[in-house]
UniProtKB/TrEMBL annotation:
Entry EC no(s): 1.-.-.-
Domain spans labelled Enoyl reductase (ER): 10-335
Keywords of the record: Oxidoreductase
Name recorded for this polypeptide: Putative Zinc-containing alcohol dehydrogenase
Domain of life: Bacteria
Pfam families, per the entry: ADH_N, ADH_zinc_N
UniProt xrefs under InterPro entries: ADH-like_C, ADH-like_N, ER, GroES-like_sf, NAD(P)-bd_dom_sf, Zinc_ADH-like
Keyword presence, tRNA-binding: no
Organism: Cupriavidus taiwanensis
CDD domains: MDR7 (cd08276)
Amino acid sequence: MRVFQVEQDWSIEHLQMASKPMPQPAAGEVRLKMRAAALNYRDLIIPSHGYGKRMKDLPLIVLSDGVGVIDAVGAGVTRFQVGERVCPIFYQTWVDGAPNAERMQSSLGCEQDGTMATHLVIPEEGVCRVPAYLSDFEAATLPTAGVTAWRALITEGRLKRGETVLVQGTGGVSLFALQIAKSLGAVVIITSSSDKKLASAKSLGADYLINYEKEPQWWRTVREHTLGVGVAHIVEVGGADTLAQSVRAVRTGGTISLIGVLSGSDPKIPLGQVVTRHIRLQGITVGSRADLEAMLTHFEATRLRPVVDRIFPFEALHSAMHYLASGKHFGKICIRHSV
């Protein structure tokens, strides 16, 4: 089978296409013939050993998101049959329940081989069926960014109809958060430095648009849009440069979901406000299989469709990663696995 893997040494230059023997499923495992994969920002730092000692030894097959069709099953498999289309879950060790070290110990494309392979063998507990109405590329985007947004707003955030959500940027998690929030009847404020991307976000249902380059004190604008109250929930992806403003923009008793650290991981924030206004700071790193299953049920009921920006052929993984790093995209970047 064909794979893209980091081999010999940790660097983007050592991310190479290679051939490996066809894997065979053992008892309790299924083999997927992969149809598509999707990129996330974590995939840009994986080749440089960005997650340190927790990572699998080289060689490492990259990427965590994808979709495929089961073409072989091992002995004792009961949940699936050959021919079913499924997505592998991000944390292969987190089926359900609250996060803990054991459940979060092994993610695809980091602690174990990922989805950038023509075939993938994993336990049957580590995959989910996907709705037929979604294309392969749409389905491939769901297990990481989609589940992150779902867990932030729904599993942990318990978002209610009519509440206001602030979404930072137009990356994968942020667009999923926008779509999920609007499908549940929430009001959404979104920030970006690009008027073009803000216009695209408006077409997805965003209620209020803020260009943070034109309005650097954007928390004040958020307060104005909420009549001085603040928002119920913030999807915080900026990190050090945005967290202090998020604290000022959230309402008393509101939640800030800490998902990204794009501007750094050492913020200076007004902790007094966090304490006296009962602000909840909630760290989020993807979620469980149960989160993905619940999200897929909601997607099928509401017919939500992930936003796919561009599709690259399997051989062009490096080009896809360069495009992701450029920040020019609006929506997810996918890989076609067809041989």
